[in-house]
Each structure stands twice: as C-alpha cells, then as structure tokens.
Fold these 4 entries.
Entry 1:
Amino acid sequence: MLEPPLPDSAVKALGRWLADPERGRRYADGSGPHTILYAPAKWTAVTPWPITFADRAVDESASVSRAEVVAAVRAAERSESWAKAFVATQVWGYGGSGYGPYRTRQVLAQPNAEAVLTEAVSLLVDEGAVAAYELLNTLHGLGPSFFTKFLYFAGLALPEVKGPRPLILDRVLAGVLRRHASKAGRAHGYEWSGAVARWIWRDGGWSPHRYDVYLRWMHAAHARLTAATIDWPAAPDVLELALFSGAWNPE
C-alpha cells in the first residue's frame, strides 16, 4: 500500500479537486479557511471555554475555522490549559452535532483528563505522534476520530514536534484507506486483501501501529502530490481535507 502511495488516477482526481473553485481552490494556500458551524449556547455546561470563541450567552449559530482553532490552542497553551485547547478542538470536530457537548464534558470529568492531555502533548514533542496517540487512547469515551483532532491542532500550534506532524484519522479517512488497500492488494494478486483491509481499516479502534501506517502513507502521498505538476499546497493536512471531502474514491 505504501509503494506507490497514490496511483496516477488519484493524483489527477486530487488535482481536479484543487483546481475547482467550488471545492479545493480555497485551500490552495492551506486548510486554514476550512470552517464549520456550531451552536455556542449548547456548550454552556462545558468548561473551560476558549476565550477566543463565541459568547455562549447568545442563542445564535457561530462559525470557527481551522486557523481559528489553532489560534485558540496557542492561547490555551500560553495559559497552560490543555483542557481548554481540547474543548476548542472538540467544538470544531463535533460542529452542529447535538451530542458533542455531552461527550466532551464526560471526557473532561475524568480525574486524570487534564494530566493525560498535558502528558500527550509532552509525548508529541519528545517522542512523536504515535506515542501521544497511544496515551490518549486510554481516556474513556474518547475515540481516535476525536482525539486525533486534538493531536492535529496541537501539532499545528506547537513550534516543533518529534517526527511527522499528526493528522486527523476518522472513519471517512479509514474508509478511503480501506478501499485503497483492498484495490492495491487485488492488483498484486491478493484476492483476500478486501477482508484484511476491512479489518485493519475498520470504522474505529485503530491501534497505534495503524495510526503510524496512516501517517506514513499520508505524508508519502503528500510528497507524491507536491512532486506532481498540480501546484499542490505544502501543508499535508490539505490531503486529509481533500480525502474527507470525497476528492478521490479508490474504487
């Protein structure tokens, strides 16, 4: 699956997505403008609240971009509150979903939550994304689809981290990898590749090793895109956004 990381058809499809003014062109300089809507009033019971986010006393919808989440995480780091940074990433991650505030509150209610978040950031700096992933996987009720959002934004906010910067892995991205691995395996004569791909790239519960494979594949695929003549952005997270948006279907 890692060699080659992307077939020519994928490079062409992703190039079309990037060139499309209704889809990827707005991210030609990075994923910062990618924005979601949320209802601040629904987050009233969640503390601590990022100081740069919308006033929760106003019963109106608000928007927050990836760039704004990064700014909120940096502000939280300066105040030494990784719990506040975590809330910022979950607001963006859940968007308009009604159960986001409840789940976020349940995670933060655990006695060790703040300590685990803080230690995960230290591991990200000193040992890398996979070590931080393994630790965050111990928090009850917080699956990889959402703690990789925390890792991703922390990685963008920090000046340096060990190894490749983390990226978001959720069931949509896993689905792309599942279809790609299955097709690549069949192309090499492995008829059983579909069953194996369905297991290792299932909808959740990915091991730290699987996250490591995901990061290596994504960064290799990003290098393939930047080497192509499609003016692909320098930021690897644009590939994550493109795949999440359905820019390429391996099937």
Entry 2:
Amino acid sequence: MTSPLLNDPRLIVGLDLPSVEVARDMVDRIGDVVTFYKVGLTLLARPGGVAFAHDLRARGKQVFQDWKLHDIGAQVEGAARAVADGGCDLLTVHAEPQVMTAAARGAAGSGTKVLAVTVLTSLSDDDLKAIGYGATAAELVARRVHQALDCGVDGVVSSPLEAAAARAAADAAGRPDFLIVTPGVRPAGADLGDQQRVATPAAALTAGASHLVVARPVIADASPMMAAARIAAEMSEVRLRA
C-alpha cells in the first residue's frame, strides 16, 4: 500500500470515536494509508487521551489536536504553550482576535501551527441568526479569516464552501503558506450526518483547501483502509491537474 494514489498527506482522518482503545484499533486497521489524524475533544478528555495523541506522533503520524480553545487570553496562551510543549502539529482555537493572538504567542517558536475555527460546519445561516449573529456564514467566515491573518495564526478551519474566499484573502495578504483546513468533506453519495455546509474532496481542494478532515466516511466504513484510499486517490487526481 505504498502507491501515492493510496496516500495523501493532505488527508486528515478524524478519530471521532468513543474510546482511546477503539481509536487505536482504527489506526491499526487503516495502516499506512493515512499519515495524519485529528484527535478531538471526546478522546482528549478521556484518561490517556492526550497520551494517545503523543503516541501517534511517536509512530510517525502527524496529529491535529482539536481543542477549540476559547477562554481569556492568559489561559489560552498557557494552554497553547502546554499543547505545543507536549508535541502537536495542528491546534485549534476559536477565531476571536484576543484568543487567536494569545494562542499565537503561546505556540511561538514551536512546531505547532495554530488554526482558527471560523464557523462550525454544523451551523447554517438560520442557526447563526438564532444565535444572534446578523451575518451569514460566508460573511462571518470572511471577517474571521481577515482577523486570523492580522493576528498571525497559521491558518483557519472553514467549510469547503468558504475555502475559495479564504484562499483569495490569504493570497492577497501575501500568505500562500496559510493553511485552510476543511471539515464537512463528503464523497459523492455519502451521508451528510450533522454537517450543513459540505463538498466533495475534489471540490474542496479545487476551491483552495490545503487539508481535508474526513471522519465518518472513513471510520464508519466496513473497510476504513479502502475508504481512506479511495478519498486519497480522488485528492491525488486534483493535485495532478493543478
């Protein structure tokens, strides 16, 4: 399973599973097809969850710790520093200027890249209105992308539908290295689950995403290794056309 069509480092598989033991078994089942994993709050909050994330890195995997930090600046700065000191490739915080600035300070000088979560992909425009926002998802993402660029974080998390606008803003700011990580990616015909703003892997990459986060279409498949390989193959096709 070493063909480049079966492995793409831009594919991040979300280990949205109920226990560390189940997640570890899933990584073993997928094997070398996937090199990048997201460990979210359910696992991080479990006993041994952070240690599991560190173990993945010790196995040569890249790890995205999806903490979505959101607190006063001093707490966020300290937490970001602690995560970075422990070893982490990507760390998420909420895309509010004080939070982003503090996280950038905390992770400075480490190998940890800070991503700002713009608008959760489970939220629709109606959901935002109910929360009290006067902007649509696209408008709020655009505002937060510009704020993220100003605050000096390494990238954003946004839905595939906003990836093109985010990439254009990053290019205009002279930041071609700016990461745009897109959850809400579903292969054609896949169940949408709780996601509202989705696209296929090819469409998300074509729009400007740097990495794709895919969970259920891989981990719920009878053969997660082959499911990941199919997505990686679709991604590699886009890269070859670029």
Entry 3:
Amino acid sequence: MKWSYEPAHAEAVPEAFMRAYAMAVQPPAGPVFLSIPLDDWNHPLDGPAVLRDVSRTYAPDPERLRRFAERITVSQRPALILGPDVDRARGWQAGIALAEKLKAAVYSPPLPDRASFPEDHPLYQGSVGMSVKAVGERLAGHDLVVVIGAEVFRYYPYVPGDILPAGTELLQITDDPATAAAARVGDSLLGDARLSIELLTGLVGDGSGRAQPNPMRRTRRLPENPSSPLTPAEVYSALSEVRPEHAVFVNESTSTMAQHAEWLPTVEPDSFFATASGGIGWAAPAAVGVALGDRDRGVTRPVIGLIGDGSFQYSVQGLWTAVQQNLPIVYVVMRNHEYSILKSFAELEETPGVPGLDLPGLDIASVARGLGCHAVDVTSTGDLEKEFRLALESGTTSVIVVTTQPEKAML
C-alpha cells in the first residue's frame, strides 16, 4: 500500500476519504488502504463534507531539463527507453515525436507492464533484455541512454554484468522520487512523463546529422510442418491472423513473452498489460479489471487474456466474476503441462530437476465451465482460429485451452 490509515473517530472519516483519494491518484498512482470502524457508519455527518481535488501531474525543473536537452543534442548515437509510465501519462504521440526528431533507437525496458511506443515503428529496436548482462550488452554502441517513465533498471533473472557499457552515459526522467533514488547509474529528473517529453522535444536539436537506425528484423520462424503439440510460435502466429482491431492483450505467459512481441506487436496506446514483478496469478483477474474499466469509460473492445496453465490456477476464480459481469473476455490458456518459466530459472541457476514443476492432468476447460464460462480444448491452429472467432462473436467470457510444447524462456 502507498498509505494505510484508520480514522480515530467517526467525524474524521470524510477527511480520511479525501486524503486516501489524493494519495491514490498522485504519482506514482497506487492502492491505499482505509479502515473504517463498523460503528462509525452510525454517526451523522456534522455539516457538508469537504470535497477536494488534487493535481496528478507536475512539470520538471526547467533548468535541469534544459541541461538534459543539451546533453541529448550533442549525443552521437542516443537510445530512448520509453517505460510504462509514458503509456499511463498518455504520452505515446509525444514519445513518437521525440524519437523521430532525434532519429534515436527506441527500446522497451526490462519486463514492461505496458507498452509505450508502437512496436511496428521503424525506430523501434525491441526489448533491452531482462538481466544486467543482457541490458548492458544490448546498449553497446550508444553514447547516451535516455530512460523515461521506467526504472534503471527492473531486472528479472540475476545474470551479472555491466549496468552500462563503458563510455555510455544515462539520463532518467520519472515521476516517482523513489524510482529516481533507486537508480544505480545516471542523472535523474522528476516530472510527468508526457509533459517532460513534450517540453524536451522543444528543447533538443534535431537529429539531421545522425544516421537513422535500421529497422528491427523480425524472425518469425515456424516449423515446416504443423506441430503436435503446437509450438508457442504457432499459437501466436494463429492469433495474429484473427487479431481483432483495437484489441487489448493481458499477458501472463512469461515463458512466451518473446513470441508475443514477435507476432503480436503493440501498435496503439493502452492496449498491452503484463505483470510488473513476475508474480504468478495476476492476469486472470487483471483482464476482468481491464474489461470493467473499459465498460465504465464507455469503451467497447475485446479483451484477450494470454495465460500459461500454471499461472491460470492461482486465481481461476476470477472467471466467476467475469461471467457474472458478462464481460467480453477471451482467455487463451497455453497448456504445456509444466511451469516452464521456473524450469528455465532452474537451468539458469544450474539446478535442473527441481520437483513440483510438472502439471499433469489439469482439466482447465472443465474448471472454466464449472465457473460458468464457455470453454473448449483445441490442438490445431485451425481449431484455435475458429474457436477464437466464435468467442469474439459471443461477446461473453470464453476460455480456449490450447495444448502447446514447453518453451524455454529467453532469460
């Protein structure tokens, strides 16, 4: 929690509500906890409640931002890392304008929980990786790295290496003082992501003297003949064929995130959500939250949950809420009969054969039907595409369980 509190007396409840609201929406936005003693509800309010509103954005220090702009302008080969706070701040278009003015390579940060730049843009170069070693190697050749709306850096597996290549400098812009304080390298500036990008774009010189990075190459390898069980690449390839316009993806198939990026690149704001920490069991209820939020905002779009069979077990009861609320969610559960991500970690830590990581005999479709969903098992790409289209047309909560081969995670 950002803040937890219990009012000492009933008269303080309205004030506590306003304080809780203000703290929840101020950056970095997050949950607060307010405990109201049961008998407080029996006390009449003495006079009208005081209603307040608070700002959710703040501008960066102008002089410090100017110095950042000067350093970026003289950079020969800058890299932009646009993190999830850019998407939260509605900063997509601002980020595109800055990248194009600079002719800078754009990367996504390690383990992003949102996408903040169109992944089909010619300047987009993919992820920087998920470990210290991977990030350091990926940024080789850049003399300056500008991180906006992300940590420096959020890592997943521990693989030792250099945080930055020798001779590379780093600038960070974040709305979170704790994130700025935790950065292990570079200089930081506090400010709202979108506002900071817009101001920075007006201050930096253009990149006319820089060579534009080559567009990222997508491998998109598929087996010569259909596999049985399907490979994750075949599943994502099939989904790319039936991907509806303006769909939002909620992904918790951690061992297949690379295939998601390869076949289902994010191309518009507020349309990709993933777990920020690697904790298991997030996506099933998160898809419910996204769909409820869309309904509340008057937005109509399909919500697609891509989840591994292991992750799905942790909060499968979220399906009941989805059904009761009649939410248009299509869950695609990739059943590989194991915790592939944990097996990958075991190999990374040189401890193969860890017990308890196999998941045989799970009848996920039956469990989903028991909670009120329409649910089917599929084994081919043709059936997957057919059932996916039917699920979209139904407008209700559906679960498609597709048997896949285990995939070693790209750690």
Entry 4:
Amino acid sequence: MYTKIQETASWLNERHSSRPEVAIILGTGLGSIADEIEPEVEISYKDIPHFPVSTVEGHEGKLIFGKYAGKDILAMKGRFHYYEGYSMQEVTFPVRVMHELGIKTLFVSNAAGGSNPTFHVGDLMIITDHINAFPENPLRGKNIPTGPRFPEMNGAYDAQLIQLADSIVKEQNISGVVHGVYYGTQGPSYETPAEYRAFHILGADAVGMSTVPEVIVARHSGIKVFGVSVITNMGLSDHPVSVSHEEVQQAGEQAGKRLKMIIKAMLCKL
C-alpha cells in the first residue's frame, strides 16, 4: 500500500508545478467551491494510478491543483465512501497521497443530518470532535510509517483553526454557524428516528457517512484538520421528515455560499 501511495504521489508531481500545503475535500453539494479555484491542472480520478473512482451522484470525481484565495491548494471534488464497497484503505488513499505531496492542513466538509434539536437545516456545524461508529478503522493492518501505531485522537480537529473560523464568523457576521460533535456511520441508509435519538444521547450533534476515516488518517500523518458539516436535514424531532439525496444536495449548495466565505477568509489568514 505504501508503495502505491508513493507511486501515485510521484505521478501527480510530474503533472503540476505548484507545491500546495493546503487541501480541501469538497463533500455533497459543496463542489461549487471548485468554481472559484484558478486551476493549474485538473485530473479525473479515473486517470490517476491506484485511485478509486467516486460512484455517488453529486461527486464529480477530479483532483484540482490551483490557487484559491491567493494560496496554492489541492482540492478533491468528490470523495469516496465505505458504503460504496471500498475498503477503509481505499477510502483514505487520497489523504495518504496528500501527505506525500506535502499537505500540512486539510479542510473537510460533508452533509449531515442534525441530531441536536437546537440546530436548523442549513446550519454550518464546525466539527469539534467525532464519534467513530464505522465497523473498521482505516489504520487496521500493517502500520504505514507516516505516524505511530497508536495515534492520539485528542484534538483531531485543530483548536487554532476552530478559533480562527470563529473569529471570521464574528467579524463577518455570518449567521447559522454552530459547534458540534459528528457521528460517523457506514451508511448508505439514512438513520431512523430512534437512531437519531440514540446518537444524540451518546453526544452527537450531527450524523453522516464520511469524514471520520479521512480525519483519522490525516491525524496519523500529522496533518491538521478543520471540519464543517452542512446540516441538510433534521432527524431529531417529534415529526421527522423524510429526506432524499437530491434534497441533501440542494441544502448543501445553499449553505455552501457561507462556507466558501469562511474557508476563503481562513486561507487568507493562514
């Protein structure tokens, strides 16, 4: 696996001249951020050696090297999920490659269902911690020498980046921004009302099907993480409302405008 990671990184380095230290994973409904990137090169996942290919609607599936807010960045337009049938090592393969490419900071976004009754559809939840309910850990198996066998998960979401985001939200008076704990499940079925209630009792404010594996591998590799969930539906209520993938995408796209403001300002101040 480590040989494949190095081969992919070497292949990519031959096709771009920038040396980004920041990467952004654009989740469901948030791909419009890519429209503001000044691209140096865009590469389809299917053309990258050893890379998986995204199969989810709304995940375009390409890697973008370019400039955003004056910074060299690497952006993933579309991610991989455990429920697609990939192993955890395949799901997190791009993050491993990011480390080899010199990435120091990772911005990760996702769509999530709200399990905190004070939240609203369209809120941006800055992730302060997560609960890992996936059936497999991406570090299972032979340890890859980018980090220790037993990496520390305290502070998985960087406190300084969270403080920076909070200051920007206050300065720019951006509404609908909250803090919370993300509960990661394997999916692909949406949660039942009873599950939302159970997850909330366990301490979860939002529930989704991604992000946790990527964050674990990023921390194992020494990459700082800033995570945001777009609350696309509310599952914890007296009368839960059914939700479709299309509605999740629409809610994500609407909230994406405010998320772009935050990420752009953060990049300017890094």
